[in-house]
């Protein structure tokens, strides 16, 4: 604490010492400024004193003249005010009378004002009602405006749809034009197709006539096939009997051959005798074998002709509505007829007169039509 007081005292003393050092210079400066100020304001010569007096007199004279003018002006103002006061007194009397009249009018106006206040209250009530109705109307108008906006948006959408529909209509008009041209082309094609259909109908009628003829021919061939089949069945029974007889003959030949072998053993020239017996045996065995082969071929050919004729009759019954396979049908019927001719020749044997009518060369040139005789000769020339 003492240190702080010592430091404070030391600081205060240093400050006082500095003030004592600076104060003489500041005092001299103040004195110099004061002297200069006094020299500037106080006159130093008689001319300056006289000039100052003249200036004061002039200022006083000017001030007196100004006050005189102000006095004259004030007097004129007082006169004008007096005159104005008189006129105002007259006006006040007149206004007092008017005031009485006005007070009477004010009474009347108060009554009217009361009536007007009542009317005003009614009008205010009516205005409040109008305000409420106006608020409701504003809300309705805002709702209607929103509806109008929605309707405008819908109208814009409908306009866009209408534009799109116009574009679609234009595209459809072009499509209609193209379709009209296509329809005209189709009409022309229809006319040509009608002509083709008429031609095809004529051809179909001709084909039907030919088909009926072929059906009659097939019926006749079927009857003939049935007769030939019956004959073939009879021949098959005959062939079976002959086969039984051949079997019996074979057994007899075997027994005879055994006896001959026993007899030839005792002979010196047994070799020649045995050769003759073998040749005879071979001839006897070959003749029934050839008969058996021809009978088997005839039976097989009869079965084949019967199956093919049945297939052709089925195809004819199914193909009455179409005429596209006439050539194939004719070829099949011709092959069946050739098979019947060959079957007849086989059943009659080598002495059949049909073999003399058939050509020896069954071949034909390419593109040439094959006749019935050539077909039959081809079937007979095939082995088995």
TrEMBL record:
Keyword terms of this UniProt record: Coiled coil
Region of interest (Disordered), residue spans: 348-370
Coiled-coil boundaries: 148-266
Keyword Coiled coil attributed: yes
Name of the molecule in the record: Chromosome segregation protein
Provenance organism: Rhizobium gallicum bv. gallicum R602sp
């Amino acid at each position: 604490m003492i240190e702080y007081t010592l430091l404070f005292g030391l600081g205060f003393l240093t400050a006082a010492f500095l003030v004592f050092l600076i104060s003489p210079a500041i005092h001299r400066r103040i004195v110099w400024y004061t002297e200069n100020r006094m020299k500037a304001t106080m006159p130093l010569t008689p001319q300056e004193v006289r000039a100052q007096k003249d200036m004061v007199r002039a200022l006083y004279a000017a001030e007196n003249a100004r006050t005189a003018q102000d006095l004259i002006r004030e007097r004129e103002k007082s006169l004008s005010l007096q005159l104005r006061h008189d006129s105002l007194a007259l006006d006040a009397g007149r206004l007092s009378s008017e005031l009485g009249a006005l007070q009477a009018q004010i009474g009347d106006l108060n009554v009217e004002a009361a009536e007007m206040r009542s009317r005003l209250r009614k009008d205010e009530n009516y205005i409040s009602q109008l305000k409420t109705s106006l608020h409701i109307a504003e809300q309705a108008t805002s709702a209607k405006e929103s509806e109008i906006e929605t309707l405008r948006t819908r109208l814009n959408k409908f306009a866009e749809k209408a534009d799109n529909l116009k574009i679609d209509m234009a595209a459809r008009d072009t499509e209609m034009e193209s379709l009209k041209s296509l329809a005209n082309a189709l009409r022309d094609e229809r006319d040509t197709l009608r002509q083709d259909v008429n031609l095809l109908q004529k051809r179909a009628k001709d084909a039907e006539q030919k088909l009926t003829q072929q059906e009659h021919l097939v019926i006749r061939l079927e009857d003939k096939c049935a007769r030939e089949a019956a004959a073939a069945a009879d021949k098959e029974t005959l062939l079976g009997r002959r086969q039984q007889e051949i079997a019996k003959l074979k057994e007899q030949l075997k027994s005879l051959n055994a006896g001959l072998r026993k007899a030839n053993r005792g002979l010196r020239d047994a070799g020649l005798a045995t050769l003759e017996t073998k040749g005879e045996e071979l001839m006897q065995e070959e003749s029934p074998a050839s008969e058996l082969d021809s009978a088997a071929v005839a039976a097989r050919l009869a079965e084949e002709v019967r199956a093919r004729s049945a297939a052709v009759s089925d195809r004819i019954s199914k193909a009455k509505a179409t005429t596209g396979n006439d050539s194939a049908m004719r070829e099949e019927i011709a092959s069946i007829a050739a098979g019947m001719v060959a079957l007849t020749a086989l059943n009659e044997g080598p002495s059949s007169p049909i073999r003399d009518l058939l050509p020896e060369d069954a071949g034909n040139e390419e593109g040439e039509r094959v006749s019935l005789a050539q077909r039959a000769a081809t079937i007979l020339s095939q082995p088995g």
